[in-house]
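Extended Data, record Sigma 54-interacting transcriptional regulator
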Amino acid sequence: MLEKINKKKLLIISYSELSANTYYEQIKTLFSDNIILDKLCIEGPNIKKEINADLVLVQSQDVFKFIKPYMKKEIDVIMANRTISEVGLKKVMQIEEGASVVLIDESKEMALQMVWVLYQLGIRHIDIEPGYPGSNRKVYKDYAIVLGTSTWNQYSCKKVINIGNTLLELNTIIDIGEKLNLSSILQRQNIRESYREIVTTNFGLSNIIGLTNRFESELDIVLQILDDGIIGIDNKGIICTYTEMAESIIGYKKDYVMNKHGLEIMPDIPFKQALKNMEAVKEKLIKINGYDIVASVHPIIHSGKLYGAVAIVRKFSDIEKNQHKFRQQLIGKGHVAKYNFEDIIGESESIKKCKNIAKRMAKSDSSIMITGETGTGKEMFAQAIHNSSKRKEYQFVAVNCGALPESLLESELFGYEEGAFTGARKGGKLGLFELAHNGTLFLDEIGEMPINLQMRLLRVIQEREVMRIGGDRVIKVNIRIIAATNRNLKEMVRKGEFREDLYYRLNVLPLKIPPLRERKDDILFLINEMKVEFGDEFHFTEDAKEVLINHNWRGNVRELKNYVEYLANLELEYIDVKDLPFNDEVDMNENSLTYDEKKMLEEFLESADEKLDKYIFIMEELKKSYTSKTRIGRRTIYKKAKDKGFFISEQEARLILINLEKFLMAKVYKGRGGSVITEYGIKVLKYLKLEMSASK
């Protein structure tokens, strides 16, 4: 009987019966039979009688103004702070960016309040207009957001999204318990279940912990809704709070730790430091029971008095997973590996062998160097390796080292701090190394990376840490590097164009992709697969098949795909030799230069400058001697030039021969051994003469 007499009454007053019922059930679940709970709806007839209750919960200021004349002065009033469920928030997040949206609530004040709540919860991609009875707006909108079973809608909308009834915020529940002396009731686990699906706007919870001197039991219950583990001690170091999440993270059972000395049971948690200095200890990495734990400790102080401390603990592995999710949100959907080994098709032994090697490499964490001609599918192999590795759940970040100037490539790879240079983005920028953390970084065309950046890349590979441009903080990264090139890196190392130490760091697992001309069995097979992609069913004559198989395919699979697309657009049922796009091509094997050879030729032309005609003259003389299987020296070259009225001194001929040898176009023998042109020199001579004749 005494229990019933001491019960206090809470009266819920709202606009609609639906809202009152929602709050009624939520409070009833938490406080059970420990309070007398009633509800009152102001819809319909006006209130004509005096309101009697220990505490009144009102839905808005407008409701309070309406019922104030009927209330006794001694009655406490709480304004309901509202929020929504996770399900409702996800529905709003799925609205496309830029859509016109109206949120409909029971009054202007409540509609404005809910718009603000959604903004606090991270809805920034759409502008939401408040809607309410009496606003008299006849405006077309893309979406109307309604709460619960609300049907009022004077807006013309394409779609109505129901995000469910609003729910009471955590701080409102705590205030009810405090004002009715029922804080201890909240120790039951109902609050955890009730708030598991609710999103809260109370982001300053850790600050509230530091400023409040409420009972330790209340502190424990407030923190039950957090995904972090919470451990509370009093000012003597005795453990008085130990949540289920803390039990899961630390591993000690609650019965084992409660009411025992926390500094002795868990000495690695910096309780002692927080109690002694009366200052928070932020995110210290410790190890408990073999697990890496991140612990923060906040002292509980009120009016200068120390009441104890609260530790927030998290598994380091969980933080890593959350960082991965945040990185995905930050970088969007661009850094994803699309291809698997099943997408790399072919029946030849060479491609099958290459795929088998790559599959074995995928199991390792060592760096991979993929080499192959242009168009062989190096990036496709890199993506397939990533998707078959233990890093497949993380980012695949690709960067073309030859597509960006040195300064921009450096900022892309390493990131930068705010104000690092003119034009730097406000807040700085994450580098690709950081974005690829726990995943794979694919460095395409690694041979084009400037020599200055090669040293920084080598340090990242060795130390697994980066420092942003303009920064002073070392950031640890866990990445796997896959590099790719169509250049001869060994030759570049020999010439000093690529760091030897970096080459060996990257070339731990070499993978060479065979060119299409070495897998002729795949040519017709690939064409049949590509025909399906382009939606055509043309056929080849036997002569056309033979030409296709024997074509040099310098552009490899990429070139093949371009030709299949061309043939599909001809709309022919049968393709003959005359229909093939390369029928009249010059023999590429004889006259075309490879990528590396062209790069060397560019340097040669820059070196030759205005003396190119003299170089060509000497190369022609060397070729004539090569044909007659003799060698020729600089004195003979001088005489031949003089006989033809072409002035070249002996010293000038000597320097030209030395330069030709430098660029691998000639071989100069000591003494009277003479000089001889190389095969590359012959190719360059033909190429230059063709270019000269084409320009006339």
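Summary. The chain has six domains: 2-80, 85-165, 204-319, 341-512, 518-585, 595-695.
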